[in-house]
Each structure stands twice: as structure tokens, then as C-alpha cells.
Design goal:
The structure holds 2 protein chains of 2 kinds. Chain A is α+β, with helices and mostly antiparallel strands. Chain A has 12 helices and 9 strands. In chain A, strand 6 and strand 7 form a beta hairpin. Chain B is of the alpha+beta class. In chain B, the strands form 10 sheets. In chain B, strands 25-28-29-33-32-31-30 form a 7-stranded mixed beta sheet, sandwiched between helices. In chain B, helix 8 packs across helix 9, helix 13 crosses helix 15 and helix 21 packs across helix 22. In chain B, strand 4 and strand 5 form a beta hairpin. Classes of the chains: A alpha+beta, B alpha+beta. At the A-B interface, helix 5, strand 1, helix 7, strand 5 and helix 9 of A face helix 2, helix 10, helix 13, helix 15 and helix 16 of B. The complex binds zinc ion.
Chain lengths: ~350, ~800
Amino acid sequence: MLQNLEDLKSEFTSALAEVKDRSSLVNLKADYVGKKGKLNDILKTLKDATPEVKKTLGMKSNQLKEFILGEIDKQMTALELSEINEKLKKNWQDITYRSSLRDQGLTAAGYHPVSIIQREIEEIFSSMGFEILDGPYIEDDYHNFEALNIPDTHPARDMQDTFWFQDMKHLLRTHTSCIQARGMETRTPPFKFIGPGKVFRCEATDASHEAAFHQLEGMMVGKDISVANLIYFMKTLLSEIFRKDVNVRLRPGFFPFVEPGFELDIECLICGGDGCSVCKQSGWVELLPCGMVHPNVLKHGGIDPDEYNGFAFGLGLDRLVMMRYGIDDIRHLHSGNLSFVSQFKSY
Amino acid sequence: MHISIDWIKDFVELPDMDPKDLAVRFTMATCEVEDVLTTGELLNRVKIVEITEIEDHPDSDHLHLVKFTDGKEVKQVVCGAPNVAVGKKVPFAPLGTTFAGGFTLVPKKIRGIMSEGMLCSETELEIGDDDSGLKIFEDSAPLGVSVGEYIGQKSDILLDIDNKSITHRPDLWGHYGMAREFAAVFGNPLKDQFNKEWEAKIKGWMTSEEAPVSISVEPDTCNLGFVGITMDGVTIKPSPRYMQDRLNACGMRPINNIVDISNYVMLELGIPNHIYDRTTIKGDRIIVRPAGEDKEFTTLDEVKRDLIPTDTMVCDAEGPSGIAGIMGGLDSSIADDTTGLFIEVANWKDAEVRRTSTRLGLRTDALQRYEKSLDSQLLERTLLRLVELVKESCPEAVVRGQVVRTNMPDYTPLVIDITTKRICSVLGKEISDDEIVGILKSLDFGVDNSAGSLKVTVPSYRSTKDIECDADIIEEIGRVVGYDNITPAAPLNAVNAVRLSEAKQKSRKILDFMVNRAGALEVMTYPMVGEKLLDQAYWPVKNESLVLANAMSPEASIMRPSLIPSLLQTAALNQKTYSSFRFFELGRSFLEDSKNFSNERYQLGVVSFDKKDSPFLDTANTMEELLNSLNINFRMVPGSSDRNELYPKNWEGIHPYEMLDIQIMGRSRGFVGTIHPLVCRNFKIKGQLVMAVIDLTDFQDQEMKDKTKYKPLDRFPSSLFDCTVVADAHTPVEEVVAVLKKGIKMKELDWVKVVDIFTMSDSQKSVTLRASFKDPGKTLSGEFIREAEDKVVKTLESKGFPLKV
Ligand SMILES: [Zn+2]
């Protein structure tokens, strides 16, 4: 009997090796361990054996049954795998044909670089509690000049190459300071706001001059605001913008809407103040105009200069954009050239 | 403008420091020094040598090999000058010398022979006008000595001042005014050179005879005071070396003693003046009057200038001799045989002379000063200084009569009240009363201090425009103390919540959506366009009242009536490079407005382009999603080209059928449309171009209310039913869906959508619809569902959409 089981095992092993597909395997399974299979045939002869023999052989035949089922299972999985793999071998895609290889046109999406920098700076101001204001491009003489203490005869008007409309009363705003003038009219101190936007100058264009460009005007008005506050504020702001500690210095600068007025220089970020070609060996780079709001400007905005004062400043956004990305020609900004803007893509 | 340090030292002692540091200190306190230059370096390098030997150049018939000595060693150069001769003493520039044009001598072979430098002409050294050959010195000239030393030219340091930084400071347009700043900044006293004794000395040369030339000012001129004096017996000759050097350093060419004195005094005291040859003054009268009938005038530079009646002219008995404040005429200038002078010092209204100058396109050194608002109180001092220098140059000259003056304005000194406390508070720095008073006095302010309450009297020359209120006094203290001596301090501020305006929130949301969801690139284009572009886009609205008076070019002269032409232009540019793209601009366009001049429209313009497949539906879907994301109530309905508000009536630029009108608050506020092939052709666009524009102006300030409401989740399943019907090829599917939704009238119908569309023939298509039924209270029975399905088919059939068999 024991010998029969051993024989059956070796017979099964060689039969299994012959099986090439799943249906033969199912048949093989029925042949050996099915109800009418060979193992059962052997077990039927056990009927008359002694209990000891029954016990031993029963155990042995169970082990054989498990062995056969296990082998068939293994073989089944192996056959299935090779069948699937056979299919996959015929049916797979060229995994290198990815977007980067295809002409799908221009799929890049992203913000204009000026928008990127403007948003970044707006966020800094928002976090410091500044409102963000807007204003018209087409301004009147009053908001662009007079309200900013630039009367008709002021030489400062020579410094502004203004685009005038044919009525000679309206113009394209030459600075975002108009937003300041309008902002004051509708607010009572204390307040602080910025006004970013497009401005226009009638001057010949070249790689660093454009007829349309972007500024960001800022203003803080309250009680007892000092030059010391202005310096502190600008230092904090610029350290945020340039993401490192910057040193600033103020020197006298003439702008009719501020008094005292300053040119603010930052210590050269390239050489750290030692002097290089960018800072013309001076260690400082002229960055922005600022100053204490002129009493006349406050008065025009309906604010009593004896009670309140404040500071204001203007940032050239395009210059920051060009510095950040190393852009060589300001005229790209308004060119509408997608080869340019797609370089700043978000994805 | 150049400021000569040598000249400044006439009036104030300067600390012994590196000129570069001096310039930085001055920049921090007064005005921007752009550069520090040294003059006379060239002449200090160039030495006097004697030619010892001349040979012909082997490879040239006009070049020579010239050997020479400086007394110590012999060198050789290649030289082509015709007057080269043995024994002559000539200037030699060694290698490394830099000439006026910036050209530096480097080792170089000339026709194969090494030249160790260059022998120079007068013009090359800028010591004369003779460029015909080498400068030949006297035989007695010492060998090896620098040319500068030999001719007595001093080396000087020049500060190059940025003119823009002193537009508000008329007093800084002369060396004396600058010297006062140096005095205040470095704490050294300003030499009191033009004092009473000085005045008395010059007045002592005047006589009691009647002034030979009379002056008068007629009404309606821009004159602000006129003084003059007559001198006789002068001799015209070259100016002394120091004066020529200083004029050269400041960029003015020396001419002769009298012309040079006129320029010198302008550069010294900042007040322009005019010296006439007295014989040219017809009738011995000078009259300042409006140009009136005079239509033209030839200025000193021999250019005929057109006048307008209101221009102020300086005239004699017969006619104009100069345009006030700008330039004199040819006739009155000093000639070599001039002996009699009339010296004029006048002041003119800043804005008026500037206007005339701008109109004539003529800017002069005088005008540059007058337009800054000069001080009439300084006219007489200037006149006396001119007399002094003429007398210095021609001791034999005599003054005839007294100073004549006319039209001198009244003057009351400006007094400003301010407290030292306020000064310290605004600057944010403690400064002692003594220091404040000291600074003001050093700047020539009068100060009356009563326990910190100051009455500050402003010098006349600072109050013409520059200083008018207490803030200006604060600046004077701040800049001299030095802003870098102020310690930064955090501002104290009230806390208040600040949120972005609705418009700002919307524009950010749109930007984010367009980039992150719609996959578009943001562009910016000029808000000014040209007529040609509008024509190309078939745009009939030309915004005639919104045209720039001084546009840079016709292509950017009109405020754009719409974003559309700019978007077309941008699309045209980019379709050359890319087979498909999508971009957008959040920009402004402008409508004419008779009441408010202009009506600025905030618009979003989106452009989708594909060489092959129409991006219409994709773009329309994007716009629908965008408006949903903004929580705006809108309708998107098939439109017709004659009714949208965002383009002109019957605009030929839009596809007659592929156009969806976007309606917000009952008005068309946008559209999505395919651009007409004809317009595409105008722009040479080859492909499918779809544009969407939304005008945000009227609703951007509305609050974006979040209308999302939670509904309990469905407890019972819904049941779907698909059926395919036949429709006319051009029936919009929206109509098929609407027919079913409206016609079936069952509250259990949840939604109807299109699953598929299939073109059957040119005239027919099949549409597969899917309807969903549900009852929130129970599971729908099989019987109900069968009835509902039946009803769907019947409803569609009854409206002309039979079931496809
Ligand atoms: Zn540097």
C-alpha cells in the first residue's frame, strides 16, 4: 500500500511535468485527487485494513493529497502568469512616447513674471496689514500732479514725460502715486495701503526703458510717524522681498510729494558692499524713492498735517522682476510672446 | 554739472580726505555725486623731449622713425607729423597715457616697427587748436618736465553732480552755493567774501555821471528784476590760466576775457548774465517787452527762431537783442575790438522761460538755471562780481555812472515757526537745540530760539520755491545730521483686520483658475493700440476722444476699445511658433464717455488656438467652470453676431454660428466665439482660433457669496435609462435635453445628460440620452420605472425626436 502511494507520487510528478496548459492541469487534478481519482482508488482498498494501518496510511495519503493540490496550485499560477505574460508581450505600449517627446503645441501654463513678483510683494504687505488699492490708468491732471504737490509750474513736471490726451486735461498716469492721492480721499487715519499697477511714460524705449511699466506705491499714515520708523519699515520689507537681511541707507532725494524726500539705496546684494561692477564699485544700489508725506499732499487728501503724518514709497516692479530672473530686455514684458512667458510657467 | 574742488576751496576749507569719501559724504547730505574725476592727469604724464635723430620708415614714404631724449634716456617712436625736425622740443606721451577721448596708448608696432609712445599736437593735448603738426615748445623749455607743470596748469578734482538731484535747489547751480553746503556738512566756516566792505570797494569805482544806458521793463513780461552797469576802456584778450582751466573743467570753452568772465560768474554765483558790446545797443536803451509784432529772431547760434507775441524779449531802441532768459543775439556779442560794455543781470519767471525754451527746443545753461526759480535779491551781487572781475582783467577799465535797476520785486523774508521737539519727533532722533540752531545758521538761516520754539528766517535764495514749510526745515536738519545716524525703530500701529477687496479677490481667483485649471499662460499687452490694428480686426470703433496727443508711435496711439484686437495680434505672433496654445490677459479696455471722459473696463480675454481641432467646446467649458468658481449667476446661450455688448454690432470678426453669449445680471457681459476665418486671414493666422472675453467691471465689486448648501445623502438608489433618438443635424443637443426636461413633467426625474452623439448623414444625427429617476422617500418600483421610460420615449417622439431603430 505504502509503495502504491509512493508510486502514485512519482507518477503524478512526471505527469505534472508534461502539462502545458490550464485545462490539462484541471484534468490532471481530477485524475489524481478527484472523487474518482487515483488517490481515492487506493484509499478504497483501505476499507479492510487494521486500525493502525488505516491511521498510518490515512495520514500518508492526506500528505500526498496536499502535496498534489499544492503542486497543481503552484503550476496553475505559473501557467496563468506565463499566459498573461504571453499576452503582455504582444500588447504593450511604447513607454517612451511621453509628452516631452510630442508636439502637443504649447501646454505650459503660468503667471506673467510681473504677476508673480507683484503677488509675492502684495502678500508681504497683506501680512503687515496693508490694504491693496487700484486706480484708473487714465487720470486727470489733479490726481496725477496737483494733489501730489506738483503744481502747473513745478519743474518736476519736466521730469515726467507724460502721455497727454488731446484735451490736454487727461493723461495716462505717470506713477502709481495717483492711487495714493485717491486712497487718502476715502480714508481717515490711521491707515496703510499699497497701490500696484501699470504706469506710462512717454520716452524712447530700449532694453531698459518701456513706455508702459509697473510700480507699487505704498503709504502709511498715522500719529507721530518718524524717519526712524520709515528706515525700520523699509529694512524689514526689503529683507522679506530679497529673502535675506539687507542694509539700507537714505540720502536726500527730491520728489515733490514727500518732504524730507529720500533715495533709498540697498547694500549691493552681489558683492555685499565691497564694491563690484553692478554697484559701480560703490557697494550701494539705488533702489527706490521714499519720504515723509508732504504736508500739502496730506492736505489735498483731507488730512490735517499737524495731527497726522506718514511715509510713502514707490517700488519699480519691473526692475525687481528683471533682477530676480536676470531678464535682459524690459520690452519682453509687454510683448505677448509666449516663448517668453512660458519660461515662467507653473507647470 | 561739474563742481571744481579747487574752486570750492576759494570759499571754504575742506577736510583732508580721499575725494571719493568726500563725494559719498556729500551725496548723503546734499546731492548725488555720480563720479569723481581728476583733471590735468594727461598733461602731468606728457613730458617735454628733444628730437635727436630722424630716419625714414623703411616701409612708408610719409612715416619717420624719430629718436628723442628727455635728458636721461633715448626713446624711439614712429611719427608722421610734417613738422618733425631734429633739435625741436616737443611733447611726448609714454605708453599708458589716456587721451581725452578715452583712448589709451598700448605697445604697438606701426608698419613693423615698435613705437614707444606718441609725440603730440596741441589738439591732442587740448592745449590749443593747432592740429597741423607737433606742438613745438620754445627752445628754452626744460627737458623731462611735464607739460602741465611747464604751462602752469593745476590738477583739479571734479565732482560730477547729477543735475536731477538739484532741480529743486537753484542755489546749488554755482560754486559759491555748493561751498556753503560743504561748509555746513563739514562744519567749517564759509568765507564771507561778498560782504559789505567788498561791496563798498566796487561801488567806489562808480561815478556820479548819469548812466549811459537806460533800462525799462514794459508790462506783461516775465521779468523779475533787471540791473545793469556800463564800463568803458576794456581790452579784449585771453583770460588767465586759472579761469580757463576752471571753465574747461566745467565744460565751457574759454573765448576771451569778457565772455569768460560772464560764464565764470554764472558758474560761481549761479546767476546767468549778459555782457553787451555797448556800441551795439541802439539808442542806448534797453527795453524788456513782449515780442508782440516781432515774428522771428536769430539767436547767437545763428538759428532763426519763430516767436510768439507773449515771448519776452530784451530789446534796444530798434529791436530785439535777445530772448529773455534763454539766448542773446549774434549782434550784441563781444568782438575783438570791443572797448565799451553794458553788463546785464536779470531774473525771469521760471515757468514762462521754460515754456518758451521747450517750444523753441532750445535749452541753454542760462535757461537751465532760470527754470529753477532764481532769487532776484542776488542780481546786484552778481553784477558787482562781474565788475570786479572785469576790473581785475583790465585795471585800466572804468565804470560809468551807477548801477541801474528796474522792476525789482518786493521781498519779505519767509519765517517758519517750528519747535525742536517736532524736528526730533519727525526724524525719530534726539538732537540738541544747540546742534539744530548751529546747522540752520551754517546754512545761512536766521534763527530766533525761545526755549525750543524756533522762528526760522529762510534765506531769500532758498525761499523762491525750495523751502516753504516746516517739513523743509526738518529735512535741512536731517540731511546734515545724516540719515544714517538715525537708529531704525519699529512703528507703533493699531491692529485692524484688512481683507482684500472683492475685485482683488476675484482677479486673483481668475488668475489662479486660468493658470491652474484652464492651463493657460498669462500675457500682458499694451493698452494702447494703433488704427491699423483696429482695421485689421474689422473694428469700427476708433475711440476718437481717447487718442494720445504725443504718442510714441501710431501703433500705440489709441486707448484700445477692446482687448480683442490685442489678443488677435498676440495670437498671430505666437501661431508661427506653436501648433496650439492657450493664453489670457486680465487687462483693461476703454470706452469713450462724454461725462467722465473715459470708462475703463476690466476684462478677461482668453485665446485658445489649435492648428487642427477646434478648441471651442473646451474653451466654453472652461469659461463655464470659471464663472461657477466665482459664484456668479450666468447663462450661456447661443448668440448671434449682432447683439453682444463686447463687440461692435454686426462685427464681421466672429463665426456666425459658433458663438455663445455669456449673460450676467441680464446683460451680455461676455462671449465665447470662434474667430471668423476672414479675420484670421487678415492676421495670417492658420488654424482654429477661439476667443472668450468677459467684462468684469460691473460685477467685480459684488461679494462672491458661497451658495453651497448641504443636502442629506440619498437613501434610496436612483434608476438610469438610456435611449437613442434621431435629430436634425444642426439641432443643438441642448434643445433635445430641454425638450425632455420640460416635456416630461415628473418630479422623480433627477437629471438628463447626453451620452453620445453620432452623425448618421449630412442631415441627421443620433443622440443617446441618459435620464436618471429617483424618489427621496422610497425605492422606485419596476412598474414605475417602465412607465417612466415609456414616457421619456413618448415625450421625445412627440417633439420630433423619434427613437432610433
Ligand atoms: Zn556690488
